[in-house]
Backbone:
């Protein structure tokens, strides 16, 4: 019923980023995460299975119902809460050590400042849902807000972008970003 079965390359790219972060020790149990555009909840479930605690947001109420059901089936409902809403539904001061978003490039560009405002100092950011040809625009939007170049992983026509140890002030002093 919701996007995110794990079979689409963008979902696989995000899961690979999560696995790499875990293997490198960049994420650890007890950390807080945000799964923006959670869909079926697969990314949030993966993070919860690694011991992190987080929130899945989606603007689609059906996706939230699906993600909530999947969290229960996977025994992570305690560590993975879901809610209908977007990035602007969060309290202004709420931050997360890890943010994952597997949505389209234009929304990722449009929401760049808002996404970064919710990333804790030293946090990790994984973005996907991006066509390889659109990656330079997405990267440029985040670089304008103070991030360095990300690690880019490609799978066919799709890519995932990963930033680790994001600086404290990234995105805090910048104005809006346009595509």
Residues:
């Amino acid at each position: 019923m919701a996007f995110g079965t794990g079979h689409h390359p963008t979902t696989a790219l995000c899961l690979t980023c999560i696995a790499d972060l875990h293997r490198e020790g960049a994420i650890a149990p007890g950390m807080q995460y945000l799964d923006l555009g959670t869909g079926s909840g697969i990314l949030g479930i993966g993070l919860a299975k690694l011991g992190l605690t987080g929130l899945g947001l989606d603007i689609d109420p059906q996706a939230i119902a699906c993600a909530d059901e999947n969290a229960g089936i996977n025994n992570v409902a305690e560590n993975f809460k879901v809610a209908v809403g977007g990035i602007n539904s969060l309290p202004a001061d709420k931050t997360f050590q890890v943010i994952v978003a597997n949505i389209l490039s234009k929304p990722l560009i449009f929401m760049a400042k808002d996404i970064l405002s919710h990333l804790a100092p030293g946090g990790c950011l994984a973005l996907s849902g991006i066509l390889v040809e659109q990656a330079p625009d997405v990267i440029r939007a985040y670089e304008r807000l103070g991030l360095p170049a990300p690690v880019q992983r490609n799978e066919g026509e799709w890519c995932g972008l990963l930033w680790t140890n994001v600086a404290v002030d990234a995105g805090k002093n910048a104005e809006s970003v346009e595509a």
